[in-house]
Amino acid sequence: MSEYVIETKGLTRYFGKTCVVSELDLKVPKGSIFGFLGRNGAGKSTTIRMLLGMVEPTRGSAHVLGKNSQELSPQDRARIGYLPEGHHVYGWMTVEECGKFQASFYPHWNHTIFDAVLSHFRLDRKNKAGNLSRGQRAGLCLALVLAPEPELLILDDPALGLDPVARRSLIQSMLYVTRKTDRTILFSSHLLSDVERVADEIAVLDRGVLRASCKLDTFRSHVRQFVIKHNGKEPPLPDFPGLLQTFRTDTEISLTFANISHDEEHHIRSLEVHSIEEIQLSLEDAFVTYVGERGEKSFFTKDLEGVK
Amino acid sequence: MSLQFDITPGSPEPIYEQIEGHIRRQIATGSLVEGDQLPPVRTLAEQLTVNPNTVARAYAELTAEGLVESRTGRGVFVAPRRQIFSEEERNRRFHRAAWRFFDETAFLDIPVPEMVRRLEAAWPDYFRKTPTP
Amino acid sequence: MKALFWKEFRENLKWAILAMGIIIAAMAYSLRYNPNEFYSFQREVWQGLQSSQFLMVTVFGFPVVGLALGFLQILTELRRDQWAFLVHRPVTRKQVFWGKAIPGGILYLLATGIPLAGTAWWLATPGNMPAPFDIRQLLPGTVDLLTGLCFYFAALLSGIIQGPWYGRRALPLVATCFAATCAKVYSFPMATSGVALVLICILLAAAATHGAAGIFRRTSGIGRAALVLTYLFAINVLLGWFWVGWDIVFPGKPYSYKDYALFKTGEVVVTTREANWYKNVVTLDGREIKPEKSSFDWQDFLNASYLYLKPYTYYSNYRETQRLFNQIYTNSSSPYLWYYVRSVGSFQAFSMIGKSCHGFLGPDGFAPENDPAKAGSFQLLRSSYGTDDIVATEDGVYLPDLNAETIKKIFSLGPDEKMRSATIIYNRSNNDAPKDYAIATSRFIYILPHDGPRIQIPISVDPEKFQGLELYRTSEGYTLIYSTWWGDGKIGPELVKVSPQGAIVSQTSLPQLRQTYERTWRMWVSDALNPLGARLWNQANIWAFHGLGFSDSTPIWTWKAKDRNKALIYWMVATIVGLVCAGAVQVPLRRTEFKGQRLGWTLFVFFFSLGGLLAFWIANDWPRRIACPACGRKRSVERETCEHCGAGWPAPKQDGTEIWEGLTEEATPPAAR
After folding, report:
1. Quick one: residue A295, left, alpha or beta (phi over 0 = left, psi -120 to 50 = alpha)?
2. Predicted model pTM
3. Interface test with B, best of A219, A275, A283, A289 (most B CBs within 10 A)
4. Span C603-628, pLDDT tens digits
5. Residue A283: closest CA among B56, B6, B14
6. Contact C213 A209 (CB under 8 A)
7. pLDDT in tens, C323-334
8. By the CB < 8 Å criterion, does A223 face chain B?
9. ipTM of this complex prediction, to 2 decimal places
10. Which CATH architecture has domain B15-78?
11. Which of A98, A261, C238, C313 has the most CB atoms in a 10 Å sphere around its CB?
12. Is A123 in contact with A145 (CB distance < 8 Å)?
């Protein structure tokens, strides 16, 4: 078996004329916690659904656990845990019945894990699933998806709508899963602080195109921001290929780069200005700059100034 | 043994640097002394709710700095104190720290000699109790 | 699977119970019975399971229940993430489908079958309905039950198919209307096999389409065939609706019908009727008779007594009670309702108050309710009892008096004589006057005047030759016209004049009337569009059902050469249209995705011409085609290489801001491939 649990080649999906996922080459190493990032509508869910064989790729292929994702057998599915967006459960079942229902499908069902997750989320087994809070429902879903001890866990925005406590429990569960080194988690999220806590690797999908796939730290160290202070006279700046964003005030220019080369950095540092400083970006800032609008940036509020 | 501190995701400082900083400070202040064992990577990761690889990286950086050493099969221990940085590196690190210091203090209108005096006075305190970050 | 069954039962039980409640209420309403109103709007309630009100419930109610249960089961769950939760588990898609279809189908059958069986049981219990009950009355409801099952599976199918609502997904629902049409065919075996065919098609299509997650290309061969056939049914229905709409918007000339009749003067005339009204009246020598008033009406003609020769049950629909029993309209002041019950072979009376059986009246007289054998039995030859008051049976003619509960034999057959038919000769001027009767046997036509001796006309009636026999009473005696109603031309219409004593005065052959059956271009078009496949299928059906004795039509190869050649022109047109369509379909079939299916599709389109083309177009997925970045011509987005220039797809544009884990490592950007 290959060291990648998920491997896609030129994975592409059109909805009508729009290409929502374009030529995706994604590789998720075994044993990693893989953060799948991107703005809303970037194609994350579609990709995940293609990986699980629920959406047919327009072209290209996806292999999950070494199997073509369009031909997953029930046995393969038993090895993949999937938590769909929105934490769906059947509201008329009790928590207990949910577990029984789910357990009846799986050849392997770890009651200890199921019970542990339930108690972690303080779930009453007699409760109707429809009466649970969002966080409790997420806990139930997580219990259902963890109890079969899948080799690969795919979580589609699991933190959506959860309070901080439930989120923390979620992250702890994710870390718990990867105690065994051959377990892999792919999850999508908009909460960068969670991603920062748990992800080894991230992939950034921007309008259907993969723009980054690397270790989390690599991503952070490749997005760099420099603030140039000058006395009102802007120094001449060449066209930097990796320039993501420029932000100007009267006496300052802030430049954010991806993949800045040594020569370019040297060029900036040798500008004859008042001061040049590198600002360390948080993951969230780095991500926002990375997938945000390119080029000259102004405050959103500035656009609103014309509005009465 | 356990280490008591919290990390702040979402800050400009990466989590592994935060862990590194905390351990470095505890060694500097004497909370951790030579021969103390650091918690296993997985334990600390679960305590802090972070990815074990992040903790491992912090330990690796500390090992590279010579503050801790890993003994095969037994764990990671605080190393005997020695200076492993070059003169140039030490200067660079000091410079960076000084700039951070000045960022905070430049507008307090405390003259430099006074600052030096106060720093000298605060130095023993730093070792007496674990400062709040 | 068990868990899936349990889930579906649990989720849909409430809907099934609700549906059952509605059906029970509707059935109860349709069978409400009030003796005071019995002769007005509840005219048919005695037909029980076959009354038109009850069949309204089964014809419309069952499909609505099937459709509703199907949609409630599939649409509520098709929301993206909920569906993903259901589907992503260690089961196959097929198991998911059967996990839905088996409990859902059972719930549907319970929701409709329990009320149906319950009603049957209630009606079969004496004292609930003043009418006889026969278990075969369940047949129409059962066929409708199957039709409703078609709707249920069509809903499951329509839910999963990927495609626009107005096209691909709605068509299975339209196809079910084909089943509904089949259910109304008069012969039970034909109706059942038609419904079963549609049901099997839709069920196979639904199972296979669910197995392929709604994608036609990945559906199994049988599933594809079933789905395409389903579309073909739907197209057929749509075409039918189209022509119906067409005829409403552009009504053609009203249908006109020519017939021989006797004018009130006794003269033989040819009447032309249009929309059931007399348009003109011409004598045999071509002179047109003008109406005295603004137009002719029935009083201008002599009344015919029809001596029908077709057997009693010949044309009765399995949905109607004729084959089983018939109500006899008696004096409305009578406390009893009378029926002729075929299985008993006698008249049976039910009390309107107690709603229970009162007794039987057979050839041997009246028998009480507990001893029907005492009444004896006779088999009616004709269905016209209610209007004629006499009973023609195989051994003679009886005149029952239901109110008095007595019976009298008025005619006995001679040796070697076979009964054909009997009827009343009307006396228009006085309805209550004593009646005369006409009786046709294999040897003579008898007339039994009320006031004189029996008249014997030497015409032997052979049901093989006679298609119909009309008898008129004129001032000079009797006039008979026996004609070939079905246009088959075995013998021409004959006019026979008979003296009052029964001697044949004259016998002339009348010219065969050519119905001016005007073929409009719309008929021509719809006939020419009827594809070869449908024609062959139709002939096969006729052959099979004729052979089994269920159908009157005969296959085309048994027709006379003249008629056959005329029909074969349309067959040729259909062949040519089929060939043109098969040629046209070669254009899309050139695409590589049709490799291995070309012969199948070509044959299909040849046999089903335009409808086949349409089904082919609707069923298949047509990948979006966009301009090739290399050569600019349109290419399929699904193919890796361009059909025209062979170029692959370009990697997404890179601008140097992409971050990879070291360009030399595995996670190589597409640009570096």
Report:
1. left
2. 0.87
3. A283
4. 999 999 999 999 999 998 888 888 88
5. B14
6. no
7. 788 887 776 677
8. no
9. 0.89
10. Orthogonal Bundle (1.10)
11. A98
12. no
